[in-house]
TrEMBL record:
<dbReference type="InterPro" id="IPR011990">
    <property type="entry name" value="TPR-like_helical_dom_sf"/>
</dbReference>
<dbReference type="InterPro" id="IPR014562">
    <property type="entry name" value="UCP030959_TPR_rpt-cont"/>
</dbReference>
<feature type="transmembrane region" description="Helical">
    <location>
        <begin position="30"/>
        <end position="51"/>
    </location>
</feature>
<protein>
    <submittedName>
        <fullName>Membrane protein</fullName>
    </submittedName>
</protein>
<keyword id="KW-0472">Membrane</keyword>
<dbReference type="Pfam" id="PF14559">
    <property type="entry name" value="TPR_19"/>
</dbReference>
<keyword id="KW-0812">Transmembrane</keyword>
<keyword id="KW-1133">Transmembrane helix</keyword>
Amino acid sequence: MHILGLGLHILVAIYFAVHAIRSNQGLYWLFILFMFPLLGSIVYGVAIWLPEMRQSYTARRAGSAVRRVLDPNRELREAREAHDHTATVANRTRLGQALLASGQAEEAVPLLRAAAQGLYADDPDVLAQLARAELESGDAAAARDRLDALIAAHPNYRSPTAHLTYARAVAACGDQAKAQEEFEVLVDSFPGLEARARYARLLADWGEPERAQALATESLAKARTLPRHSRDLDRNWIKQLQGLAE
């Protein structure tokens, strides 16, 4: 077992060493990685590899946003073509997501209901998308019931978007206490500013303007620390927060 563990440490160190060379990191990292395989790999992973992975994800998200601005109907057009060619579960789901993104939730609902059949009747990702479509089309009770069933069947399932859908559905159903509980978690766990902006608006609607203003002010301070492309992605939520902070 000791030999196996040592071998794994070395393999990880080699992986990071290759990454260091390809990404033009300082050669001293090679010394650290091979002199201290376990500790060196942990340090390199935290200091270099993880930040790069996060930056890469953000860059891809920004790139997708740019493509949507240049050709806002491209994904919907391509998803519809793929679905019309072959109505697989993947293509139904893709078209449903594209319709949701373009504000056509009512058209997305039957597609996603059709996708959530057979082998995919218990697929949490498909069910979460369907719940969001139901919420966006005005059926908050159905969205909440679906997500309650999903949580019971898959207690370890984690999705920030599904969590936000659930919190919104609970709020739309009039369960203020439960909605507050869910949004208090989302404020710090949801990527971007959407959850913060939605919660601040709810607080204002619930007759708590001071809490709404405090959250909006705090969120705008957070926004100022974000990279430019992240602020561009959240510009609509930033505008809403600015209105609530005044």
